[in-house]
Design a protein that fits this description.
single chain, 5-stranded antiparallel sheet, 3 helices
């Protein structure tokens, strides 16, 4: 089922999230719905706060970006439960980002080029993994949602001032995405 995406200004996007256990109600269905929502909305990642849940869960699917340069993105779908970034590289890279919760806004964001993270998969098997480059960027973006942050929190004060009217437009309902939203 395609779920509505919560837009910038909704309190759930700023709340602290809580760990979940295997007993979380209908978790497998929730994960399936998150993938379906993300795919329908042309996203590559979706965090639980973006669908109104203050839990430590996000999904990514990079397969739509698979090409000759990134053949490893083919079938790259992952579930991250109760993630914790253990280490950020000092080396950073700046790249344009967007977000389903902040429609029609894209800004350059600097992020670590690699991260080490501990998380559980959909079967609650624990993993500790090193992620690099674009995968690390997508994970950091989604992880920020679990920390009550959005990508516009990471841009310069001058850029924030320049997009302020667009952000206010989202809050006031003047900017309406093509997908289901709240």
């Amino acid at each position: 089922m395609i779920l509505p995406v919560y837009l910038y200004g909704q309190n759930v996007l700023r709340k602290a999230t809580e760990n979940i256990t295997p007993e979380y109600p209908e978790l497998k269905q929730l994960i399936a719905d998150m993938f379906e929502t993300m795919d329908a909305d042309d996203g590559v990642g979706l965090a639980a706060p973006q669908i109104g849940l203050s839990i430590r869960l996000f999904v990514i699917d990079l397969s739509p970006l698979a090409d000759e340069e990134h053949p490893d993105f083919k079938d790259y779908k992952k579930v991250f439960i109760n993630p914790e970034i253990l280490e950020f590289s000092k080396e950073t890279c700046t790249m344009e980002e967007g977000c389903l919760s902040i429609p029609d806004i894209h800004e350059n964001v600097s992020r670590s080029t690699s991260i080490q993270m501990r998380y559980q998969d959909e079967n609650f098997v624990e993993h500790t993994e090193l992620f690099t480059d674009y995968v690390a960027r997508v994970i950091q973006h989604e992880y920020d949602h679990l920390e009550g942050k959005v990508f516009t929190d990471r841009i310069s004060p001058i850029r924030k001032q320049l997009i302020k009217s667009k952000l206010v437009g989202i809050v006031k309902g003047k900017i309406r995405p093509y997908y289901k939203f709240r």
